[in-house]
Design goal:
single chain, about 120 residues, mainly beta, four-stranded antiparallel beta sheet
């Protein structure tokens, strides 16, 4: 069983930055991980993924602004978010990389961390 505890969210002005952290309770050394987000009234969407060998993908909406990283020694996942936009406002979650199973995933999600980008 793997659990996730997200932190680092908050209220930030457009153009600002936040760094999200995900503490992973379990072994994910060679497991691909991802950051997801969900805005009210919208489906949860994939933001970025990182494999155990540090291969990275980003959603088009965050390319050039967000950076995903992991620290396997600390069992942690990070998301550096720069040049934040109001449309980035959402609850952010970390999890394993769910691939094409995101839409019907019924497993565990952490509490998430709220990111609000507003003036």
């Amino acid at each position: 069983q793997v659990q996730f505890v997200e932190s680092g969210g908050g209220l930030v002005q457009p153009g600002g930055s936040l760094r999200l952290s995900c503490a992973v309770h379990g072994t994910v050394r060679f497991v691909a991980m991802g950051w997801y987000r969900q805005a009210p009234g919208k489906q949860r969407e994939l933001v970025a993924t990182i494999t155990g060998s540090d291969t990275i993908t980003y959603a088009d909406s965050v390319k050039g602004r967000f950076t995903i990283s992991r620290d396997n020694a600390r069992n942690a996942l990070y998301l550096q978010m720069n040049v934040l936009k109001p449309e980035d406002t959402a609850v952010y979650y970390c999890n394993i990389d769910l691939g094409n199973r995101l839409s019907d995933y019924g497993g565990y999600w952490g509490q998430g961390t709220q990111v609000t980008v507003s003036s």
